[in-house]
Amino acid sequence: MKKIIICLTGMPGSGKTTVAEILKSRGFTIIELSSELKRLMNICGTPFDMKSREVFTVKLKKAFGRDILAKLAAEAVARSRGNVVISGVRNTTEISYIRTLNPDVAMIALSVPKGVRFERIIHRKQGIKTHDYREFEWRDRRNVALGMLQVIRSADYTLSNTGTLAQLHSDLDSLLRKLGSTKRRK
C-alpha cells in the first residue's frame, strides 16, 4: 500500500487539529506547521500569542522564503515510516514545496461557516483562542492577506465540518478509502 500524505488547511476554528487527531487514530503521524513555528519562537524567546506569532511569521518568511515551515516539516515527513498528515498549510508556496517531496499529496480544505468557527475558538482547550470577535475577524483578514483563500481554493478535496464528530469520522474514512485506491484528483 502506498504512503498517504495529507495536508490540511482551513481558516482558524475549522477543525484542523480535530481532523489531524482522527487521522492519528488511524495510524497517521501528525506534523503541525505551527509546532515548527512555535519551536523557532521559543528559541528566539518570543511569546506564542496571536499577534507575536503573526509578526514573527512575516519576518521569518521574508528572511527565509514563504515555504520555510514546509521545509522544516519535510525532515519529519522523511523520517516517518507510515502515513502523514501535515496540518496548517497556509500558503500555496508551502503546498508547492510539499508536492516536490511527493506529487500525490492530498490537500484537504475544511469548510466551516464563520459563526461556527468563532464559537469553536471561544471554547478551545488548546491553541490560540480569543473571546473578541474583532480580533477573530482581524485574524481571518490576516490569513486571507497571507494567501489562505488561494490554498483553500486549490485543495484537492473539501470536507464540510459542520456535522457531528461521528459524521466527520465517517467522511474521513470515505476519503481515506478513496486516497488508498486512487491518485489525487486534478
Walkthrough of the structure:
32% of the residues are buried. The chain has a single domain (5-181), classed as 3-Layer(aba) Sandwich (Rossmann fold), CATH 3.40.50.300. Helices cover 56% and strands 12% of the residues. The chain is globular, with a radius of gyration of 16 Å. With 186 residues, the protein is α/β, with parallel strands linked by helices. The longest helix has 17 residues, at 165-181. The protein contains nine helices and five strands. Helix 2 packs across helix 4 and helix 4 (68-79) packs parallel to helix 5 (92-101). Strands 2-3-1-4-5 form a five-stranded parallel β-sheet, with helices on both faces.
Topology:
Blueprint lengths: L4 E5 L6 H10 L3 E4 H12 L5 H15 L3 H12 L4 E4 L4 H10 L4 E6 L2 H9 L10 H13 L2 H6 L3 E4 L4 H17 L5
Parallel strand pairs: 1-3, 1-4, 2-3, 4-5
Helix pairs in contact: 2-4, 4-5
Sum up the structure in keywords.
186 residues; Rossmann fold; 5 strands; disordered C terminus; 9 helices
Largest sheet: number of strands, sense, barrel closure: 5 strands, parallel
| Unreliable residue stretches | 182-186
CATH topology: Rossmann fold
Q: Secondary-structure element sequence?
A: EHEHHHEHEHHHEH
Counting helices, strands and paired strands, the structural category is: alpha/beta
- In the CATH classification, which architecture applies? 3-Layer(aba) Sandwich
